[in-house]
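Predict the 3D structure for this chain.
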Amino acid sequence: MGRMYAVTFSGATIGVVQDLWQVAAGTNVALVIHSIYLGRRDLTANDQMRILIHRGTGSVVNSGGTAVPLGISAQAMDATFEVNDATQLTDGVILHSDAFSVLDGWIYLPPPEDRILVSGAGQLAISSDIAVTSGTWDGTCIVEELG
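Done. Predicted structure below.
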């Protein structure tokens, strides 16, 4: 097992089509997406959101996407994360597509054999695909770094 990290955002305003998380793996490491949690905290009426997880190309800069170690080691992650970017990565192969009621939130927790891998120097985006009524969101992406 590699090193585990959480990349979170809290109190983010989301209402447009955008990448919720973008990741660029380091050259010599691979990443495993273990789980993703997304919820809206200020909604009383139902709305639908569509989520895409896809490989992509573009520029991923470290903008609010700090990877926090979940283990005892405080070693920095050899990957770059960006959160809540309206400049989306160029769509590549869609690996997962899902829709959910924003009243319920969204949890992505696949069995181990279905977890998405990001190869060394690869890029991945977790995107909102449909604009929703603007609101305040929280999210966490749990990632394992291999290598």
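Residues 3-146 form one domain.
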